[in-house]
Amino acid sequence: EYGSVGFIGLGAMGKPMAGHLAKKLPPDTPIYVFDVVQSAVDDLCTEFPNKVVKSTNAKEIAEKCDIIITMVPEGSHVKSVYLDPQTGICSTDISKKLLIDCSTIDTATSLLVKDHISTHFPTASFYDAPVSGGVVGAVKGTIAIFLGCSETDPNLSRLTHLLQMVGKSIIPCGGPSLGLAAKLSNNYLSGIIAIAASEAFDMGMRSGLDPRVLKKVYAAGTAQNTICDKFTPVPGVYPEAPSSNGYKNGFKVQLMRKDFGLAVDMARRVGSKNVLGQVGLQTYTDAMNDPRCRDLDSRVVYRFLGGNED
Ligand code: NAD
C-alpha cells in the first residue's frame, strides 16, 4: 500500500522518526535512507539490517521511493535536497510521488519548492509537515505534526496513516505552508511564555515566594500554561523539567532562536504588529551566545535573565 519509503536527514529528530517507520511499516516495504553524515546512515542500517537500505544521495531515493520524507535543519538544506540540479529529488522524474518535508523552515522556501514541483511534476504532491514535541517526543513517537493541507485534501488519509507511525496528533492546518505558519506561531508563543515565566518566577522569588508555591499559583490562576507546569524554567521545581537536569535533553536555545527568528520574519511579512518580537529575538540571540547557556534547553533563558538557581 505504501510502495517504498525514503527518509532524508537522520539527525536528532530524523533518526528516531525513521526508526519508527522501520519498525512499523509492513515487512515488504523497504525504507531507503540518506544523510550527508555517513555514520548516521550506517547506524540505522546496523539497527535494522533487513529493513533499512542506504542510498548515496537524495536523487537515488527519489528514483526508488514512492513516498519521501525529509527532515533537515534549515531552508538552505531543504533547497539543496529538493532542487540541486545533480543530486536533488527534483533532478529525476518524481511524477505521482508523495513528498513530505518535516523540517522547520520559512514558509517562502517551502512554497518555492512546492511551486517548482507543481510546475515540473504536476502529478506529484508536496506537503510541509513540521513537528513539535522535541527529541524525546520523536523517540517515544508522540510528536505532533502540523500538516500544510486542508481537511479535504485527497492525500490526507494516506498521509495520516503514515505519519501516525511517527507521531500522535496529525493536524491539517488548512493549505500549503500553513503547517509551517502554525509551527512558527506555536514556537513564538512558547518562547515568549518561557521569558515571561522566567521573569515572573524571578520577581516572585525575590519578593520572598517559594517557587513551588508560585508553580501552584500559576496552575490555579489565569497564568496556567505548559511551560510553568512541565518545562518549569526554575531548577528543582518539577523533577522531569530539563531545568532540573542541568537544562539538558531539551529544546536547544539555538533552535529556539532559529524558530523565533523565522516567526518574527513571518510576522513582519504578514503585517502583524508583534511588539514582543524584537525583545524576544534579542533575548534568545544573547542567551544563545552566552557560554553559560549555549547548547542547553531554551528555558535556560531563566539563567540568562539572572534567576536564582539554588
Ligand atoms: P539535526 O541537525 O540533529 O539533524 C539534521 C540532519 O540533516 C543531520 O544529520 C544532517 O547531516 C542532515 N542533513 C543536512 N543537510 C543535508 C542534506 N543536504 N542531505 C541530507 N542530509 C542532510 O537537526 P534536528 O534536531 O533533527 O532538526 C531537524 C529539523 O527539525 C529542524 O528544522 C528543527 O528545527 C526541527 N525540529 C527540531 C526539534 C528538536 O528538538 N531537535 C524539535 C522540533 C522540530
TrEMBL record:
Entry's Gene Ontology molecular function annotations: 3-hydroxyisobutyrate dehydrogenase activity; NAD binding; NADP binding
Span of domain 3-hydroxyisobutyrate dehydrogenase-like NAD-binding: 179-301
SUPFAM superfamilies: 6-phosphogluconate dehydrogenase C-terminal domain-like, NAD(P)-binding Rossmann-fold domains
Domain 6-phosphogluconate dehydrogenase NADP-binding stretches: 5-173
Enzyme class: oxidoreductase
Gene3D superfamilies, per the entry: N-(1-d-carboxylethyl)-l-norvaline Dehydrogenase, domain 2 (1.10.1040.10), NAD(P)-binding Rossmann-like Domain (3.40.50.720)
InterPro entries: 3-OH-isobutyrate_DH-rel_CS, 6-PGluconate_DH-like_C_sf, 6PGD_dom2, 6PGDH_NADP-bd, HIBADH-like_NADP-bd, HIBADH-related, NAD(P)-bd_dom_sf
Pfam families: NAD_binding_11 (PF14833), NAD_binding_2 (PF03446)
Gene Ontology CC annotation, any one: mitochondrion
Keywords, ordered alphabetically: Branched-chain amino acid catabolism, NAD, Oxidoreductase
Pathway: Amino-acid degradation; L-valine degradation
Biological process according to GO: L-valine catabolic process
EC number(s) per entry: 1.1.1.31
Annotated TM spans: none
Keyword Oxidoreductase: yes
Catalytic activity, as annotated: 3-hydroxy-2-methylpropanoate + NAD(+) = 2-methyl-3-oxopropanoate + NADH + H(+)
Record-annotated active site: 183
Similarity comment: family membership: Belongs to the HIBADH-related family. 3-hydroxyisobutyrate dehydrogenase subfamily.
Protein's name according to its UniProt entry: 3-hydroxyisobutyrate dehydrogenase
Lineage summary: Eukaryota, Fungi, Dikarya, Ascomycota, Pezizomycotina
